Write the structure tokens for this entry.
Amino acid sequence: MLNLRMLKVSDLLLWIAVGLLALIGFFAIFSSTFALLLKHGIDSLLYVKRQMLAFSLGAAGLVFFSYLDYKHLKRLAPFLYALMLFLLILVIFGGTGTAGAQRWFQVGSFSFQPSEIAKIIMVICLASFFTEKRTLNSRWDSFLLIGLVGLPFLLIFKQPDLGTALVFVAILLGMLCASWASPKLLAVLFTPIISILVRPLLPLWIIYLGAVAISLFLSRARFWDWAAIFGTNTVIGLAMPFIWGLLKPYQRQRITAFLDPGADPYGAGYHSLQSKIAIGSGGLFGKGFLHGTQTQLQFIPEQHSDFIFSAIGEEWGLIGAGLTLVLFAIVLWRTLVIASDARDYFGFLLASGIAAMTAFHILANVGMVLGILPVVGIPLPFISFGGTSLIINLISMGILQSICMRRQKLIF
């Protein structure tokens, strides 16, 4: 039986923002699939009905996890981690996929993606880990943490699914920042990202290494700190050609297309160019629902999934796209408020991890659609077509509401 007293102390703004985002998603999915389905004589509501089914399941999960005391998740963390590894290993050998990517399990007419489930499990496991180890006092603790995240990261990278693998890095960095468990480890993990970004410009990379060395010298860092931070940046930079070779051909094409979309306008750069055309043509007020030329003429393949934001920008214009971003900002704001008001450290870390995960999804997806970031397979939360993603995002909101509703002692 639902406890209405608990519901009264839940976060109303979060309920509203998530509901409106899901509603926008239904309209955007219908618009981006309507013409194609009609052309082939298929039910024009097919994708919307599937998304509504996923929303119903996700809403049930949201309610369940809202009323489940989130502290129980801490005790379940080891079992959830084992389940995650089992699913990620199993999908490599027994999963289904397309275009060389093996990421899904097919059960009858339904499919689900274990890597989406792994994201929220990783947040729970890291929150439990940092609650037990508020500071990483030994190198063994740091190695244990890297292994905790590194193992599922490698399994997902193997599928291959670079976008989801990068989400794990974002979750780790975000929760390290929130917990402040090890500033040194944070530097070891964060500075190599800068090294990767500047490595293509060799003189700039050398200057960057010099700046890292000076910073370590001025901070009177010990030998092991030098070896970890400066050594990692140097090794990562020198190993870039080898790392580049490990990427799949389509992944390398996406990166080169991001740097120069015009070099292959009908190949790797096609999505990015067409997406920017759609966004730009929307203007201030948009072309109107079901009147976007790029959307209705299917210039952007699979637009209903990762490139759904381009349909919003074209048909609803800057105002519609801006409103969508405002709703996302409200979700992130309320998530951070819930984190700051949490009754315990575990709740604070859970909410912080969900904030990092959600923020990375939004930034990576919108940046990809606008052409300011490389194309990676990351859905837009609550809006992109994808049952597993929608269900997991709604469950994440349920966990947030559970943290919110237990800020004060309640009489059941």
Q: What stands out?
A: The longest strand covers residues 101-107. The beta strands are 96-98, 101-107, 110-112. The chain has one domain: 4-405. Residues 4-405 form one domain.
